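Batch job 17 of 40 flagged for manual review because the log was empty.
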Amino acid sequence: MAATQDAILVEGARKRYGEKEALAGLDLTVRRGTVHGLLGPNGAGKTTTVRILATLLRHDEGLVRVAGHDVRTGAREVRRRIGLLGQHAALDEELGGRQNLEMFGRLHHLGARRAGTRAEELLERFGLTDTGHKPVKQFSGGMRRRLDLAASLITEPEVLFLDEPTTGLDPRGRGEVWESVRSLVGGGTTVLLTTQYLEEADQLADRISVVDRGRVVADGTPDELKALVGVDRIDVVVRDGARLDEAAALLPFARAEVTVDGDRRRLSAPVADRMASLTETVRVLGEAGIEAEDIALRRPTLDEVFLRLTGGGDTPDGQDATGGPDGTGEPGTKGAPGGTEAPGGRQGREVTA
């Protein structure tokens, strides 16, 4: 496979913890200059995959290359080319945005002048130039996350790992982060995104890989994955719940295809011809005197894709199926292996998924 087009290439990756197999021959290809979503239930192998890609964990078997370098034999080169943004901000709450960025620049040995210049560039890029010396603790959630994202780019990484980047943000803050991620990719950065917000993956990802039981079980664009679920659906909410079964029998679809949700007074069925199905549904319900509170046509969602491909399985309370608390089957570890510096020079940043 051509490495020149692939920012990340994984072939047959395996990782075991005793008798438990966290990765069972995982294959993953991420094209340069794209956002690639990595989805899966707890314990699927997302965390293990990201840790291996970020050189925080060694795999047992298989080929793993990031930014053109093997993570096992060229770990130092990989670390020079990647950035990592975990779930929790690694910012000094008492310092201002510019001071935080300059500090990270100095930690990366950029020198005082270059660190200051880079801080100015990133503040402008993320719309934070007007924050002045206001301490980070006074920032909104969206501003704080954008600053954390800027800090992860201090060395201009080729590949950026984003782990749950909008967890805990309100819709406005989430939108701000989304716009920032889009601008990154527009500038040529490759992003690997792990998220439990399926809407986020739908909004941002050019392609999505669904991971389950240590393997990629599906890969494609959001629309391609939705097509796996099937055709569009029509949803009908009946005002009188007592007539729900009667309405289900009248709908112009095979009775076995109609899903009945009594609690919500809703009927749902797959449709081949969107407009013809809508027109006929309105007609038969109207003739029977059954009042519809709402009728809507919709396309399959990533939620339905996720449930179909993974069987809806998810281990409780984030506990990994292999026994570990973080999806790896081992106790949570912070920082890089052997006490070496974590990617992006940001010590002790735990990767979780």
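Reviewer: the log was empty due to a logging misconfiguration, but the result itself is present. The chain has two domains: 6-227+304-345, 231-299. Unflagging and moving on to job 18.
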